[in-house]
Amino acid sequence: MTDKRRTLSIKPKAASAQAPKPAARPAGNPAAQYARPQTAGQPAPKPVKKPEAKPAAPERRPAARPAPAARPAYEVKPQFQQDFRPDLPSDSLALAMLGAASAVAQVRAGTALPQALAQVFAAYGVTPQGRGAIQDLAYRTMRGLGRAETLLGLMTTKAPDVPMLVGLIECALVLLDPPEGDKAAYEPFTVVDQAVTAAAHHPDFAHAKAMVNAVLRRFLRERDALVATALQQPLAQWNYPQWWIDATKAAYPRDWEAILAAGNRQPPLTLRVNTRKTSLDEYLRLLDEAGMAADVVGPQALRLKQATNVAQIPGFHDGLVSVQDAGAQLAAPLLDLHDGLRVLDACAAPGGKSGHILEVAQVELTSVDADPQRLARVGDNLGRLGFEATLVAAEAQGQDWWDGRQYDRILADVPCTASGIVRRHPDIRWLRRKTDTRQLTTLSGEILDNLWQMLRADGKLLFVTCSLWPQESEAQAAAFAARHDDAIRLDAPGQLLPSSGAGLDHDGLFYALFQKRA
């Protein structure tokens, strides 16, 4: 028998005139949207005195001891089965919704979306087609999470006791409420049916399938009114936490709306042509023969008009091209590379810039990253391109890994909040906290100062960050120059805001180039 647990109740369409008003919810606060409304207690009825009858002969008895107060039990958190593999067809939308819901719940608990998806794929054992469906829905939900969360709060009064159930409903709402101008991926009745089917096949919330059905059907009936009310909240309007919206406004008073909107768009698939093996024109002809159209968005950058799996891209496994944002492709040329140089790529994972460096010139490259697993991806990417480098698993702010020989060029793609690449990693906005900016700025400053000691006189260091916040970009570059009298700042693009168009399409990055005085 299915264990019945309390989940949530559906808000009535209109409150009774005598019903107490729920407590106000702070605007833009996701947690507040699920706060239980406080109800005013009814006045207790006055006790009615009954005439006392005099006892014939009072009997003396020992005074009764008061009953012992109940001791509070230790609260035990239920173990939710996010990795449970339901008995559903591998190509069904219901299975994709459960997988995406599990990933969303894991992001809520602090796990990055790629890692969460990897756990789902391993647990579910889905086909490549199923993996693609789960990933697509999870990323859609991350981009529309604020709006879906607000809508759910408008229709319910209590939070579901299973995080994955919340994720399931939010995934369904994102499919039922696509961004303006986007075509719905599925018919509404299909989404509702498959969401209910998904709920019915999971032991943690099979008892809540009727509630899932009621919430989604109510949204379809009252969509216009619910969306209009939700969009009064910045959380729903922009799909970012309030602190992120405020930070963007403060940094870019004129462009903040365009920046936030850009982060909610699906990113393009941009390729970097390996000019050691082919040319831009030759590869364009290869794409045309394969029936794939592309636009030129950089010296070696092509943007596919229709995104596809890398396995279907001509010459990918032979190292003819790599996937890399057009803005990130500026790094290697800015280093002024030529054959024979000794080059360091600090914080190198996943290896896109390392590969580009070796495509530009035959150099002695050392790629450093603190995460051994991510560093392994650098080796895989270089191997696909046919290159080799010295891979070192170490922290760039330390020197225990350094052999003492100074480098001619250093690429310092330092840790940051990654606010400039949020369109590619929409989970970042929900994982970051306002205090992260200060902590990461401190760490990045330590890395830059440490790497500067490893640069030879007359050598060049390129400071790169994929952040939009001035504390992590321009202010960091200015502070670095102030700390080092021997640092000469050279021409570089500075802050690139996220942009897309006919001939330009890149993430938000920052570049500052320094040369050490001889």
Write up this protein.
Helices cover 37% and strands 14% of the residues. It has helices at 93-108, 113-124, 128-143, 145-155, 163-176, 188-200, 209-221, 223-230, 234-238, 242-251, 256-263, 280-289, 331-334, 352-360, 372-385, 428-431, 436-452, 474-483, and strands at residues 269-273, 294-296, 301-304, 321-323, 342-346, 364-369, 390-393, 407-413, 455-465, 487-496, 499-500, 505-506, 509-516. It has a seven-stranded mixed β-sheet with strand order 7-6-5-8-9-13-10, sandwiched between helices. Strands 2-3-1-4 form a four-stranded antiparallel β-sheet, with helices on one face. Strands 11-12 form a two-stranded antiparallel sheet. It is globular and about 75 Å long. Mean pLDDT is 86; it is low at 1-7 and 14-77.
Which spans have pLDDT < 50 for at least 5 consecutive residues?
A: 1-7, 14-77
The percent range for helix content is: 25-40%
Radius of gyration: 29 Å
Structural class: alpha/beta
Arithmetic mean pLDDT? 86
Task: Please report the total strand number as a whole number.
Answer: 13
* Share in β-strands: 5-15%
Distance from N terminus to C terminus (CA atoms, Å) equals 78 Å
Largest sheet: 7 strands, mixed
Number of helices: 18
As laid out across the biggest beta sheet, the strand order is 7-6-5-8-9-13-10
